[in-house]
Write a sequence for this structure.
């Protein structure tokens, strides 16, 4: 097999050590090999980068081991080295012949012959924003958990507020719960109602007649304070992410024209997939990388499970959330969802809609054009929205026939 790279390095990354093997092709065609161990501290990574630079390494390959590869990748990238991160499953060593040194030698050989498939690593700016975005996702989950705990505490006391209000975390429900904690009278609690809830005052009164002990009140007060804190933190994180979208303003605005994707969803998508679609190749390759397409498992002429493989949990979460929203709007995604629901369940239909949305996202980011649904007459929508105002002005200035 002909070597593609003359000077390659393989890095076997662990929590405390990095085992590095370099392969250097000599003028006579022979290959020299050297293996070293380095620590994972910042200075040790700088020393590793200097050693690789001194040998003029053309490509370095490492496995994506947990999160341990990230600071090493950043140090080598900063030094100007070409670094490839590969899926450990694709470069697995032969069982029974595994050591740290042999792992690094194997990676170096694969790099030398061009047999590694590089993983997508976003630019440094987006890599750092990923930490913020995933922290935001964690807070969203925590907030949902606290709302559920609040609901359970009320039910434990016999206060079935959830039977009357649609959202236990809404404005009206929050005012009523605050009134319960503050010990307000029933008349004051019923005065908090608004909208459609005004017609349900008798039912609301019956559901509020529970027995709240001192410990129920203590827990409700703490839960409300924590919920308020989490909401404020989420607003702060959203503002931070929106400000960070300035370099990607055009792409951010384009994604928001797709049904089901709001400002937050568009920002989170850009953080996960970037804005350069050329690196993914085609739409099919892009969807395959995201693991949002059906699995391909066939043997002896028999097709086996077509279950979607495991990919980025964060990207799947964003797409499924957007697909749920898009399935409730009058667009091609809703039609896709309804057609699939005839023979498929909700979850499978949502994943399929997410796959379709991902293909649209690829096309929009690649062409730089806003989304326009083929089944929607945008001129008709504009006329429908503005016709009453136009007619009013025409009548006012005596132009109406």
């Amino acid at each position: 097999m002909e070597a593609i790279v003359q000077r390659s390095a393989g890095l076997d990354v662990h929590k405390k050590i990095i085992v590095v093997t370099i392969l250097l092709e000599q003028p006579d065609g022979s290959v020299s090999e050297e293996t070293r161990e380095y620590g994972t501290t910042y200075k040790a990574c700088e020393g590793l980068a200097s050693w690789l630079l001194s040998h003029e390494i053309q490509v370095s390959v490492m496995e994506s081991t947990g999160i341990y590869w990230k600071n090493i990748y950043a140090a080598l990238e900063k030094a100007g080295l070409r670094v490839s991160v590969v899926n450990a499953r694709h470069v697995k060593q032969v069982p029974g012949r595994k050591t740290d040194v042999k792992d690094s030698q194997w990676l170096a050989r694969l790099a030398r012959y061009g047999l590694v498939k590089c993983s997508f690593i976003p630019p440094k700016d987006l890599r750092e924003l990923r930490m913020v975005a995933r922290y935001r996702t964690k807070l969203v989950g925590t907030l949902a958990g606290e709302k559920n705990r609040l609901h359970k505490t009320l039910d434990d006391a016999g206060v079935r507020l959830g039977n009357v209000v649609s959202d236990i975390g809404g404005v009206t429900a929050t005012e009523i719960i605050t009134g319960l904690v503050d010990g307000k009278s029933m008349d004051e609690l019923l005065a908090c109602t608004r909208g459609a809830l005004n017609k349900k005052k008798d039912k609301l009164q019956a559901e509020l007649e529970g027995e709240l002990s001192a410990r129920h009140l203590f827990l409700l007060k703490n839960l409300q304070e924590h919920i308020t804190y989490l909401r404020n933190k989420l607003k702060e994180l959203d503002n931070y992410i929106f400000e960070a979208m300035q370099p990607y303003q055009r792409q951010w605005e384009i994604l928001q024209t797709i049904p089901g994707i709001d400002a937050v969803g568009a920002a989170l998508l850009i953080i996960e997939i970037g804005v350069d679609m050329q690196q993914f190749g085609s739409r099919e390759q892009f969807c395959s990388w995201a693991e949002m397409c059906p699995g391909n498992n066939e043997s002896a002429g028999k097709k086996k499970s077509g279950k979607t493989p495991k990919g980025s949990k964060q990207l799947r979460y964003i797409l499924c959330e957007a697909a749920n929203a898009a399935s409730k709007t009058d667009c091609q995604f809703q039609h896709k969802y309804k057609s699939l629901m005839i023979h498929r369940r909700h979850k499978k239909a949502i994943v399929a809609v997410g796959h379709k949305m991902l293909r649209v996202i690829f096309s929009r980011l690649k062409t730089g054009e806003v989304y326009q649904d083929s089944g929607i007459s945008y001129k008709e929508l504009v006329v429908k929205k503005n016709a009453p105002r136009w007619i009013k002005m025409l009548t006012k200035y005596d132009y109406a026939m």
